[in-house]
Design brief:
Blueprint (H helix, E strand, L loop, with lengths): L13 H5 L16 H4 L14 H9 L1 E3 L11 E3 L3 E7 L14 E7 L10 H5 L6 E6 L4 E9 L4 E8 L2 E9 L5 E8 L7 E6 L23 E5 L2 E7 L5 E11 L2 E11 L5 H13 L3 H16 L3 E3 L3 H17 L22 E2 L3 H6 L1 H4 L7 H8 L1 H5 L16 E2 L7 H4 L20 H16 L2 H20 L3 E2 L5 E2 L3 E2 L6 E2 L3 H21 L6 H10 L5 E2 L2 E2 L31 H15 L7 H13 L3 H14 L15 H14 E2 L5 E3 L10 E8 L3 E8 L2 E9 L5 E4 L6 E4 L8 E3 L4 E4 L6 E6 L21 E2 L3
Parallel strand pairs: 1-34, 25-29
Antiparallel strand pairs: 1-6, 2-3, 3-4, 4-5, 5-10, 6-7, 7-8, 8-9, 9-14, 11-12, 12-13, 13-14, 15-26, 16-17, 18-19, 20-21, 22-23, 24-25, 26-27, 27-28, 28-33, 29-32, 30-33, 31-32
Helix pairs in contact: 3-7, 7-20, 13-14, 14-15, 15-16, 17-18, 18-19, 18-20
Length: about 800
């Protein structure tokens, strides 16, 4: 097998690859496409079929329920990055028949609602707080359901059947108003159904799993009252401030619509007025008028990219992950906590930075949804809060991020532990000096820069923060007797035990120094630390390995089942080691096989990481096998995921594994279809965003790539391994021949200015450029709980 990382002879330098040419200034959506590109857009192409490919794949991906969901892992979910609602049967009272369902629960949770007592740390004193839930209580006994979560409209519709009649339901969480609206149209026998709100105890969910810190107590009970026809549950907080749930029910004809809004304020008590105003404004609108702009937003959201492949179950799963991400993330919303805006019983009521955040946001790049990038925004906005997480001696020139924080990147460690800070000190700090998390999070920021070529991301966020994150490492690097630079003991998530020359940190340090040097050159910065960064690259100790591949560190072999791939980051996602030589390929293969060879502690994201590493090696069958294990062993009926509690990073990272099988663009080369299994003979991708700010569209039929189109948004160097056999033609947006240069391994280099496009086809071929779904190889059940 040829090395998947073979470099074309005319490949541009790393610095050239990173250069923007011209920044897109934060514009993250595809604008007007060239004439040729319009042929792939069914709304612009005069010869387009009457069917809409987006509507076709989205309708096919709808989740359905013909059996009653009993948990969050089974039921529908709605959200907009702030307000979230999970919907399932109200649990039966203890001692009653668990199969008897008397009411339906609509959970009410919000990503901004948290406590503000840092003295108790991020998991208690700064934890996300539960709000409560509504129960929809029919008059009769529930006998059946028929629900559909329509992805295209982000709306739950269907019927609830009882022994007295039916309740027809429509529900959404409005994308801009942040209102839950539930319209219920009852039959005659169900006219007296009712809604009841149940405030939750405002205490950290971790209290159900761990002992309370000394002096910690839950907040006082919520106070419920009426305010000019609007009900509100006001939850006061011991630290000051409040969160408020306000609601109103309006009848129009035979339908009754419930409107709900949540507001949070700290330290002021302004949430009540905001919540009442939001409900008052929304309740003026009938459901259909309220829903119209909501639906329009979602329709436009999906059209930013398109993917269709012949595995029906996986294709549906992919589109559900896009729905889930847009329900859980917005640029201006808090960085996703472990369960997004949906807070259920969990020992992890915070934001986790040693893997969860990174995996949650990877899919936004290829799917062309940078409007959801809260990571870049939050790291920039709250950078000053990270200073307090460092020990005093390092605050002037270093930064880090603890394992867990609240929405404002505060850990609470400054007042909740003996050290007085949140980020550990290498070689000194028991029990777990986990210092690489900020550098890894900044790799996500780097990906946002590379996929947009927006120089402001590089200049204003990535470079200054990465400089301080790497400077923290530089404070501890020391030469050994071998003349190499070594790190004192640090912690590799989540293996256990501290090790010198920990691979997690060495790999991030190497990527960070290389990226700082490239960034400084691009920005025209002559940084005084540049010689030190070069020295690290020249003298850094080799990554510790043994007969089984990569070790945890110099003191700890990889010798037990472990879910995390922290010791393999140089392979994925950093792409510092990619198989340039046979020995490097062998090392990656050996390390991957050894890692996944220990059963016992493997979890879902073990298999998404293994799938992406297999894709790097061009092993599409292996990648599909790993995704298959994920689906059968870990993914829940509604595509959610759990490890002791709800966590959502794994399904989202599985969507990125699909991206890695379909297109990779690391190292300045766009690699189309690098790791497809044989069963995926047909595949369509449209406006897939790559590094260099290119929008890629391509169609594969009967195992042959028919055409590839690239639209440049920034004028960056364009090198593409297109996969078309034999002689090719390259044409511009007007169909005219376009010059290109051949490179190694079937790659070509095309000079494209900002806004220009290139269409690549086999010589003499004039394929149909329309975008359409591919046919499934075989039928598959829908997600949700369809009839068995």
């Amino acid at each position: 097998m040829p090395s998947p990382s073979s470099h074309p002879s005319r490949r541009p330098s790393r610095r050239t690859v990173l250069a923007t040419g011209s920044a897109v200034g934060g514009t993250l959506l595809a604008g007007g496409l060239p004439t040729q590109a319009n042929a792939a857009d069914p709304e612009n192409a005069p010869s387009a079929p009457s069917s809409d490919p987006w509507r076709t794949v989205l309708d096919d991906a709808d989740l359905v329920w013909q059996r009653m969901p009993k948990t969050w892992y089974e039921g529908p979910y709605l959200g907009n990055g702030f307000l979230g609602s999970g919907i399932y049967a109200e649990p039966s009272a203890e001692g009653t028949d668990p199969d008897t369902v008397k009411a339906i629960r609509f959970n009410i949770q919000h990503s901004e609602v948290q406590d503000h007592r840092p003295q108790f740390g991020s998991l208690f004193g700064l934890a996300r707080l539960p709000i409560g839930y509504f129960t929809l209580e029919p008059t009769g006994a529930i006998t059946g359901i028929d629900w559909r979560l329509g992805l295209r409209d982000a709306e739950l519709t269907g019927t609830l059947t009882t022994d007295r009649g039916t309740l027809t339901i429509r529900a959404l969480v409005h994308t801009s108003r942040s209102v839950l609206a539930v319209e219920v149209t009852p039959s005659e026998g169900e006219r007296d159904f009712r809604w009841v709100f149940h405030p939750a105890e405002a205490i950290s969910p971790r209290a159900a799993f761990r002992p309370l810190p000394e002096g910690y107590a839950g907040n006082p009970p919520a106070e419920t009252g009426e305010h000019d026809g609007i009900s509100a549950a006001v939850q006061p907080l011991l630290a000051g401030g409040q969160h408020v749930t306000a609601w109103r029910e309006r009848a129009r004809g035979s339908a009754r619509t419930l409107y709900v809004h949540v507001a949070h304020s700290y330290p002021k008590t302004t949430a009540l007025g905001r919540a009442l105003g939001a409900v008052r404004d929304a309740a003026r609108l009938p459901y259909d008028l309220l829903a119209a702009p909501h639906r329009a937003w979602w329709h436009a959201f999906y059209r930013k990219s398109f993917l269709s492949l012949p595995d029906a179950r996986i294709q549906r799963f992919y589109w559900i992950q896009l729905y889930k991400t847009a329900s859980a993330a917005r640029r201006d919303a808090p960085v996703m906590a472990t369960s997004g805006p949906w807070l259920e019983s969990t020992p992890w009521p915070a934001t986790w930075w040693n893997l969860n955040v990174q995996l949650e946001y990877w899919l936004i790049h290829g799917s062309n949804h940078l409007e959801l990038d809260a990571v870049t925004r939050a790291l920039s906005e709250f950078r000053d809060n990270l200073t307090a997480e460092m020990a005093t001696a390092y605050r002037a020139d270093s930064l880090g991020i603890p394992r867990t924080t609240d929405a404002y990147l505060v850990n609470g460690g400054a007042t909740s532990n003996a050290q007085g800070y949140g980020v550990g000190i290498p070689g000194q700090d028991p029990p777990t000096p986990e210092v690489g998390n900020l550098t890894w999070a900044l790799h996500n920021v780097w990906l946002s820069y590379r996929h947009t070529m927006d120089e402001s991301i590089l200049r204003d966020v990535l470079f200054p923060l990465l400089r301080k994150a790497i400077n923290y490492y530089l404070r501890f690097l020391e030469p050994g007797t071998d003349g190499k630079l070594h790190l004192p003991a640090t912690f590799s998530p989540e293996y256990g035990g501290n090790s010198r020359d920990c691979n997690y940190d060495l790999m991030l340090l190497t990527w960070g120094c290389r990226t700082l040097l490239d960034s400084a050159e691009l920005l025209g910065v002559e940084d005084e630390l540049a010689p030190r960064w070069r020295e690290v690259l020249d003298r850094r100790v080799a990554y510790p390995t043994d007969a089984n591949g990569f070790m945890i560190g110099a003191d700890i072999p990889f010798a037990k089942s472990h879910r995390h791939y922290s010791h393999l980051l140089a392979v994925y996602p950093l792409y510092e080691l990619t198989g340039r030589t046979p020995d490097e390929i062998a090392l990656i293969e050996k390390s991957l096989a050894h890692w996944v060879g220990f059963e016992g502690a493997l979890q879902g994201y073990t298999f998404t990481g293994a799938a992406s590493m297999s894709a790097l090696l061009g092993k599409g069958e292996d990648a599909l096998t790993y995704l298959g294990q994920l689906m059968t062993r870990f993914i829940q009926p509604n595509t959610m995921y759990k490890e002791s509690g709800p966590v959502i990073e794994t399904p989202l990272s599985a969507a990125q594994s699909l991206h890695d099988m379909i297109c990779q663009s690391w190292g300045g080369i766009i690699r189309l279809f690098p790791a497809l299994p044989a069963a995926w003979a047909d595949l369509t991708v449209h406006d897939f965003r790559t590094q260099g700010a290119f929008l890629l569209s391509a169609v594969r039929k009967d195992g042959v790539t028919r055409w590839v189109r690239l639209v440049s948004e920034a004028g960056a160097p364009c090198v593409v391994r297109h996969g078309i056999e034999g002689a090719i033609e390259v044409r511009d947006g007007r169909g005219r021949p376009l010059r290109y240069e051949a490179a190694d391994d079937g790659a070509i280099q095309v000079a494209l200015k900002k806004g220009e496009s290139a269409l690549i086809t086999a010589k003499g071929d004039r394929p149909d450029l329309r975008i359409a779904p591919v046919e499934a190889n075989e039928a598959a059940p829908r997600w949700g709980l369809p009839t068995a």
